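I'll show one example:
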Amino acid sequence: SVVWHYLSLKRQRFKWEGDFRLWEALLSGALVFVDQMAILDWMLYSFQHKKHLIMYNPMNQTEFENLLEYYVENEAEAGAIGLRGYGHTLAHHMEADRVSYILNNIESKLKL
C-alpha cells in the first residue's frame, strides 16, 4: 500500500521538520511520500529518495501526482521501497539509536 505522509503547515510556519508520524509511517512497511526536508540531508544514516521513501516538492502538485500515479501502477516497486524504508528505520532510527548517538556525542565532547 502507499502512504502519503503529510506534515501540517505548522512545520512550514515554525521551520520544524519531522515528527513521530514519519517514523510510524516508515515502520508500517508501506511506501511513504514525504515533502522534501533539510533534516533528511544531514541526519546520520539519512533516507534516500526512491530507495527508502519518496520525497517530493510540496510546491509542485504535478510532480506529486505523477509520482503517486507511477507507484500506484507499479505496486511491486512501491512495496520494495516500503520494505527498504522499514528495514532502514529499524536498523538505524529507533529510540536506542538516538540515545546512543547523543551519549556518544557527549562522551566525545568530554574527552577534550
User: Anything to note?
Assistant: The CA atoms of residues 6 and 94 lie 21 Å apart.
